[in-house]
Design goal:
Elements lengths: L3 H8 L3 H8 L7 H14 L13 E6 L12 H11 L5 E6 L2 H6 L2 H7 L5 E4 L6 H5 L7 E4 L9 E6 L1 H14 L5 E5 L5 H16 L9 E3 L3 H14 L4 E4 L2 H13 L9 E6 L12 E4 L2 H16 L6 E4 L2 E3 L10
Parallel strand pairs: 1-2, 1-3, 3-4, 4-5, 5-11, 6-7, 6-8, 8-9, 9-10
Antiparallel strand pairs: 10-12
Length: 331
């Protein structure tokens, strides 16, 4: 295994300078510190784990997700992770990220520079710069709703989307619906692709047709609602599955503005069971994700990777929460 001495030899500097760079000493320039870290990652150096509880560090890297307010989607995920990690002796930092931060250094360099031994990443899209880094990263990492097939040190946790939409389509079919539409985000997120394919699969499983005229995708909720929803209604969709609850709530509002009754004319089902879902009008029927359990699974998967057990994915069972936005097919 490469050592600090190997880094010093490669760069032609003193071993003490490498050690100072690794520990963020004040008398080392930022350019040298960056060169040391990049070289360390290049030759496969791994910081020896310090088992003193105050030195064991993990991080939750989070982007495009509210986690600070109690009603934020990421709040309970972060809490669940911490509830498992902190009693096990880990210090956990929650670090908000932007694309600019990711462009400043590679993922492994960032992790090594902050002495994090592993991370749980929330809110990334397929276009994030570090998604490419993760294909070859040497740092144990767990992604929420993203998957890197090429790297055994990267795991995926999430809800079972296929199971969720299978339950939802079965429920709607039992209520008499056959023209079931789907609205979702664009395909630049893994979850956008996964949930659309789960919808198609569920329709096929229940001998129904997933017509392209009954689907719509857009990165912007407003465009999805204003452009694609009217087309679905014109095609006589009697029920609409939405990729997430925020979209479902907007779909319900716009349907009612157009004079449609929910669920008298159109049934709407969301996904996630966000905090506001029980308080929409009518209350939203949705597929529930236990966000605290997702956080706990994130820690379980990361701890397994840190102990050389290479988990590919952990998927939570899906649960349909029946409220007031879905009902029998209109006569």
């Amino acid at each position: 295994m490469p050592t600090i001495n190997d880094i010093a030899t490669r760069l032609g500097i003193a071993k003490s300078s490498v050690s100072k760079a690794m520990n963020n000493a004040d008398d080392i320039s930022e350019s040298l510190r960056k060169k040391v870290l990049e070289t360390a990652v290049e030759i496969g150096y791994e910081k020896t784990r310090n088992r003193r509880s105050d030195q064991k560090k993990l991080c939750i890297l989070i982007e495009n997700m509210d986690y600070q307010s109690a009603s934020g989607f990421g709040h309970d995920i972060v809490l669940g992770f911490e509830q498992m990690a902190v009693p096990a002796g880990w210090s956990v930092d929650t670090v908000p990220l932007t694309e600019e931060v990711q462009k400043e250094s590679s993922y492994d360099v960032f992790m090594l520079s902050h002495q994090y031994e592993g991370s749980f990443i929330l809110g990334f899209s397929l276009l994030d710069p570090w998604m490419q880094d993760l294909k070859t990263a040497r740092t144990p990492t767990v992604l929420y709703d993203n998957y890197i097939q090429e790297n055994p040190l990267v795991s995926y946790v999430g809800a079972n989307n296929k199971e969720g939409y299978d339950i939802a389509v079965a429920y709607l079919k039992q209520l008499g619906h056959t023209r079931i539409g789907y609205l979702g985000s664009d395909m630049n997120s893994m979850i956008g692709r996964e949930r659309y394919m789960a919808y198609v699969h569920a329709m096929q499983q229940h001998s129904l047709t997933a017509e392209s005229a009954l689907t719509g995708h857009s990165y912007f909720v407003s465009e999805c609602v204003q452009k694609y929803l009217p087309a679905l209604l014109e095609q006589k969709a009697t029920a609409i599955l939405c990729e997430h609850d925020g979209l479902a709530a907007s779909v319900m509002t716009h349907c009612m503005e157009l004079g449609y009754q929910i669920p008298g004319d159109v049934s709407i089902i969301g996904f996630d069971d966000a905090a506001f879902s029980a308080f929409t009008s009518p209350p939203l029927t949705t597929i529930r994700q236990d966000r605290n359990a997702l956080g706990r699974c994130g820690y379980y998967a990361l701890n397994s990777l840190l102990n050389q057990t290479f988990i590919s994915s952990l998927l939570l069972r899906a649960e349909l929460v029946e409220r007031g936005s879905a009902g029998k097919v209109p006569l």
